[in-house]
């Protein structure tokens, strides 16, 4: 039996009907048409599905859509302002912080959420924060360089 759920995603209301067991990640992709949130492990380990929920980075594969009613959800699609990239997106591009790009939306949302909460994170805090998401391609050095560059611009 499907349940009505009102999600607020990137400032827009989405009224959807979902089975209570449907994850936020699946609802974003299937019901809201926002495919930037990637599904990797579906166990909360890889971080590819990271979105901001009331400003906090969360694994969308571990949340049920019905849990997120009346909360503000921000996805990678909500970072850019029209054609103007968010400083984090621009830094990932300029510092080559991606290769295949599968993990990138999760890293972008993780880093944006963390730096919006604590803009003055030091090097060790940045490394610790970024270590919660997995990347199989880059070796993390360019991801860290991109986050540091965006951090300077976001301050």
State the main characteristics:
2 domains; 5-stranded mixed β-sheet; Ubiquitin-like (UB roll); single chain; 5 helices; alpha+beta; 155 residues; DNA polymerase, domain 1
Distance between the termini: 47 Å
Number of helices: 5
Number of domains: 2
In the CATH hierarchy, what is the class of the largest domain? Alpha Beta
Low-confidence stretches: none
Residue-averaged pLDDT: 97
Structural class: alpha+beta
- The fraction of residues in strands falls at 15-25%
Shape assignment:
globular
The CATH topology of the largest domain, please? Ubiquitin-like (UB roll)
Strand order of the largest sheet: 2-1-5-3-4
How is the main sheet built? 5 strands, mixed
User: What is the CATH superfamily of the largest domain?
Assistant: Beta-grasp domain
Plain-language structure description:
With 155 residues, the chain is α+β, with helices and mostly antiparallel strands. It folds into two domains: 3-78, Beta-grasp domain (Ubiquitin-like (UB roll), Roll); 87-154, [2Fe-2S]-binding domain (DNA polymerase, domain 1, Orthogonal Bundle), CATH 1.10.150. It is built from five helices and five strands, in the order ββαβββαααα. A five-stranded mixed beta sheet has the order 2-1-5-3-4, with helices on both faces. A hairpin with a 2-residue loop joins strand 1 and strand 2 (12-18). The longest helix has 14 residues, at 104-117. The radius of gyration is 15 Å and the shape is globular. The chain starts with a strand and ends with a helix.
């Amino acid at each position: 039996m499907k349940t009505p759920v009102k999600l607020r995603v990137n400032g827009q209301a989405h009224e959807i009907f979902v089975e209570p067991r449907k994850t936020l990640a699946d609802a974003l992709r299937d019901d809201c048409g926002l495919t930037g949130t990637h599904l990797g492990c579906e166990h909360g380990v890889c971080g590819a599905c990271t979105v901001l929920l009331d400003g906090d980075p969360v694994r969308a594969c571990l949340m049920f859509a019905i849990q997120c009613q009346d909360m503000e959800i921000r996805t990678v699609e909500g970072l850019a302002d029209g054609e103007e990239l968010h400083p984090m997106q621009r830094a990932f591009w300029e510092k080559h912080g991606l290769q295949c790009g599968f993990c990138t939306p999760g890293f972008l949302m993780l880093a944006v959420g963390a730096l919006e909460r604590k803009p003055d994170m030091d090097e060790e805090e940045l490394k610790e924060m970024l270590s919660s998401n997995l990347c199989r391609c880059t070796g993390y050095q360019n991801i860290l360089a991109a986050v540091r560059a965006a951090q300077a611009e976001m301050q």
